[in-house]
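Here is one chain, start to finish.
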Amino acid sequence: MSEWFELPEEPVEWLVQGLITTDDCAAANGKPKSGKSTGIRNLIAAVVLGGKFLNREVCIPPGTGKVLYVHLDRKDRRHRVAKELRQLGITREASHQIRLLTERDMPKDADLSRGLAYRNSDVFAYVSRIRTTCLRETKIARERENVAQERDVR
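Its structure:
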């Protein structure tokens, strides 16, 4: 019998139950006006306010989620993004849990994989005209921690 067949299942820590894990990278790709940005904003609202996303539980306590939202779609203006987030229930009090960056906030040579930090963010959402990506900011830190632990075991 193959060794892999007997591997035990590891526990899963969910951000969105059964859909996105806390160390996951998920992408929303599609044609223009297919709902990618709206979907990401709904995810942001669910993480910040608590509740459900796509009818699945968000697995962090309501009011504790933090989001770094890098919005680079020039056609979808910042004031429209803010309006939609307010329509989704984001209040002035909850607005501090979201850091919204646009193209004008970014250095011309910005490397999105480094240097963008919003302390303990639960969601990093990157939106451009090409694609929308959502990922758990701590993934890189956990990968580094796992590598360090593996070194310690050896």
